[in-house]
Amino acid sequence: MNKEELMKASDEARALSYSPYSNFKVGAAILLKDGTIIKGANIENSSYGLCMCAERNTVYRTLLSGYKVEDMLALALCADADELPYPCGACRQVLSELFPLDAPVIVCNTKGKFLETSVRELLPYAFGKDNLK
Ligand code: THU
Known about the structure:
Blueprint: H1 3-13, E1 26-32, E2 37-41, H2 54-64, E3 72-79, H3 89-98, E4 105-109, E5 114-117, H4 119-122
Parallel strand pairs: 3-4
Antiparallel strand pairs: 1-2, 1-3, 4-5
Helix pairs in contact: 2-3
This protein binds tetrahydrodeoxyuridine.
């Protein structure tokens, strides 16, 4: 599994999106150490504040499928937009606890533009469980 294939999986995952309010379909795909790819997408609600982003749905789906944070190798994220769909602040916070900090996070669009980063880069100085001690 290479990065292009993971980006393709995140593009395909956009078909899972339920986004009748924004019409902004975001797909995500997480590659696991055993080669499995878990796909997810954004799910919206008429009570707008309840909308859930693709990244969080996908990381939750991965955990609920029985995998652990340490099993995750890379995450790709895709939208059909000119600009890249950078993860929102809430997703960055959730990923900082539930996705490996230095694993590749590949943000891409359907036009072939992409950026590879990591959660550590996306959310420096993250609040985490150590801050609660
Ligand atoms: N959205 C995501 O799923 N991920 C992002 O990185 C940015 C935003 C979703 C939330 C909402 O359903 C729609 O895109 C418009 O904000």
